[in-house]
Input
Amino acid sequence: MIDLSDKIALVTGASRGIGAAIAKELAALGATVVVNYHRNEAAAQQVVDAIAANGGAAVAMQADVSDFAQATALVKGVYKQFKRLDILVNNAGTTRDNVIMLMKEKDWDDVINTNLKSAWNCSKAAARIMMKQRHGRIINITSVAGISGNAGQTNYSASKAGMIGLTKSLAKEIGPRNVTVNAIAPGFVPTDLTNDLLEQVRDTVIELTPLRRLGTPEDVSALVAFLACDRAGFITGQVISVDGGMVL
Ligand code: NAP
Output
């Protein structure tokens, strides 16, 4: 049984989808969870309430993590309130899909900033705390698109491939202080992010997936829980796919 009692976890973009499942799972295993959100306060509060109803501990904290100052203030705020930060899950993400000829510069900037810069912003602030503690777990939610690419997602795939480089470099940098940094690459998981796209490609995706189904947020959160726990203490710099074998 994974035990995260006494751990403080920050999950970015935890008001919906995969982030909400991660927050709930970490809390169910004993962690106190900070549920970060950007615009959706009501949804974040629902996650906090669900955790509390299950006997867990959580608070919601607003921040646009693509903004360096806000992300730094978020991490500092967590540390100020809880005096520790054990687990950072860089999950916040977005898409602005289009073929390159039609993609606007703003679509590139928004996706790179929301997906990649946010992870760097939060990791930079968290690494300072975790290195001092001589303990920490940073888990980056990348994507199979960052490994194999995807037509119509030059911005998204680049941001997710960037997260993989960030993961490997930071793992080398802060491993000596007992902080692990890993990435999880989900395949297709039905959420607000993918519902439109999945309407068109659901059957094809399932056919290309050896396990013949789409993923669930809980498929991803189960691996986050393991990577966050003490027993995963010798795993760092890895990119682990949770995709039913779609990208092999
Ligand atoms: P989602 O349902 O659209 O949820 C996105 C979350 O990110 C929301 O909680 C949103 O907050 C938050 N967010 C967006 N921009 C933010 C910002 N600037 N600052 C703080 N929070 C922000 O997405 P999802 O499908 O759960 O995806 C979660 C992660 O998994 C993303 O990194 C995504 O790229 C990755 N992923 C997803 C899939 C998939 O198939 N779903 C596959 C591979 C990887 P608000 O609610 O406040 O807007």
Summary: The beta strands are 8-11, 32-37, 57-62, 87-90, 136-141, 179-186, 239-242. The mean pLDDT is 98. The pocket of NAP is lined by residues 12-19, 36-40, 43, 64-66, 91-94, 114-115, 141, 143, 186, 188-189, 191-194 (CB under 6 Å). DSSP finds eight helices and seven strands in the chain.
